[in-house]
Write a structure and sequence with these properties.
5-stranded mixed β-sheet, binds magnesium ion, alpha+beta, 28% strand, 9-stranded mixed β-sheet, binds adenosine-5'-triphosphate, 432 residues
Length: 432
């Protein structure tokens, strides 16, 4: 992709409405634009990141045995009347009336819709367990939308729903998702600490929130220092790891009670966290009132045991920036970067520079490496600043002096390390 033809509306000034660094950087780097309070458009650079986060989540959910579906964003109120949540959910629910005066709503979550699909499709315990998920826009009319995509009103969520015959099965499904979450966040280079949590409006008996530590996090969190000693990025995500992590103390402030906290003061840490995901076991809370039953081995009809599992995909785009940035801009981990490499052509119009850049462009495209080329007629300083701001993991600088000597400069955005190497060596590095 050539920057001269790309749609990358950068902002020079820090927008005054943006209070936290991820929001500021997403606006400055031309990733998002606000449409109305808590509702955003995703521009090309931001949309690429959103899609990459989404794809990692999708691959890990598929690997965990879940099946992707897509449920409607607009739901009938009747289903929520059946579950008993229609009145309870309150003002966060966007209620709509269609032309026939039928009450509808824009889904803040999908337990009712998925339970309805299940009850109309599955009859026997032999068809269990079932785990369905979707990646879908939700709407919650948050009282205080803020921090850009971190607390939006419209936001993209991955939500799974599991169905099991009994408690033991439901616990296996829960642990399976717990493990999938450790794998998912690890692929984004994130340490997300699983914490005991209350289950809020979803309701239920067991729940963990996955919290990424960051100074701007909205939750106050408390955790055993053992979490700092545990290497999430190197961990093998197996049953033993799940047991180990579940056994350690970590809680958000609603659950934390210093008097009964089992961790001695010298091993207790506190900080701020960003909730990037949450998993719930809630048993028969929806299956019972909605009549989602299966015939058990003895022929008796039993309501299924359910769990649900959310990941905030659009929030993750912001959370990643909160973790990975410096004074100059974003430092994307490779797995979620919008492009892997940025090539700066210091002298567009210089025949040798243009030829080398075009050659690299073609070869990298054939190798499937995503590249953004700064071929604009701008000062070198402006080009370096743009590359640092948008945070691609690698930068290759092509200038007349280097081209004469047969070298380009390669810079690692995260470490700042620079080295000169031949174009062939650069291709080798980028396609390895
Ligand atoms: P919060 O406590 O932050 O309001 P929640 O507990 O109500 O979130 P869940 O129902 O657990 O949210 O939703 C699953 C995930 O969706 C959350 O872990 C979070 O990452 C994301 N999420 C929830 N609300 C929002 C929002 N308003 N904007 C962006 N992402 C959100
Ligand atoms: Mg939650």
């Amino acid at each position: 992709m050539r920057l001269s033809r790309y749609f990358l509306p950068l902002l020079k000034e820090v927008p005054s409405e943006a209070q936290i660094v991820s929001h500021q950087l997403m606006l400055r780097a031309g990733m998002i634009r606000q449409s109305s309070a808590g509702i955003y458009s995703w521009l090309p650079l931001g949309f690429r990141v959103l899609r990459r986060v989404e794809q990692i989540v999708r691959e890990e959910m598929n690997a965990a045995g879940a099946h992707e579906i897509l449920m409607p964003a607009i739901q009938p109120a009747e289903l929520w009347q059946e579950s008993g949540r229609y009145e309870d959910y309150g003002k966060e629910m966007l209620r709509i009336t269609d032309r026939h005066e039928r009450p509808m709503l824009y889904g803040p979550t999908h337990e009712e819709v998925v339970t309805d699909i299940f009850r109309r499709s599955v009859r026997s315990y032999r068809d269990l367990p079932v785990n369905l998920y979707q990646i879908q826009w939700k709407f919650r009319d948050e009282i205080r939308p803020r921090f850009g995509v971190m607390r939006g009103r419209e936001f993209l969520m991955k939500d799974n729903y599991s169905f099991d015959l009994d408690l033991a099965g439901a616990m296996r499904s829960y642990d399976n998702m717990f493990m999938a979450y450790v794998r998912t966040f690890r692929r984004m280079d994130l340490t997300a600490i699983p914490m005991r949590a209350s289950s809020g409006a979803i309701g239920g008996d067991m729940s963990h929130e996955f919290q990424v530590l960051a100074a701007t996090g909205e939750s106050q969190v408390y955790y055993d220092v053992a979490f700092e000693e545990f290497d999430f990025l190197a961990a093998v995500a197996d049953e033993a790891t799940v047991e180990h992590l579940k056994g350690l103390y970590a809680a958000t402030d609603e659950e934390h009670d210093s008097a009964s906290c089992p961790v001695p003061a010298e091993r207790l840490r506190s900080g701020r966290g960003i909730e990037v995901g949450q998993i719930f076991y809630f048993g028969t809370k929806y299956s019972k009132p909605m009549g989602a039953t299966v015939a058990g081995p003895d022929g008796q009809e039993v309501p299924v045991e359910m769990g649900c599992y959310g990941i905030g995909i659009s929030r993750l785009a912001g959370a990643l920036i909160e973790v990975f940035h410096d004074d100059a801009g974003i430092r994307w981990p490779e797995s979620v970067a919008p492009f892997r490499l940025g090539i700066i052509n210091l002298r567009p119009g210089d025949a040798a520079c243009d030829a080398l850049v075009a050659d690299l462009e073609g070869k990298l495209a054939r190798a499937g490496v995503e590249v953004l080329i700064d071929d604009r007629d701008e000062s070198p300083g402006a080009k370096f600043a743009t590359m640092d701001l948008i945070g691609l993991p690698w930068q290759a600088i092509v200038g007349p002096r280097g081209v004469k000597q047969g070298v380009v400069e390669l810079k690692n955005r995260a470490s700042g390390e620079r080295q000169e190497l031949s174009p062939e060596a650069l291709l080798g590095r980028m396609t390895a």
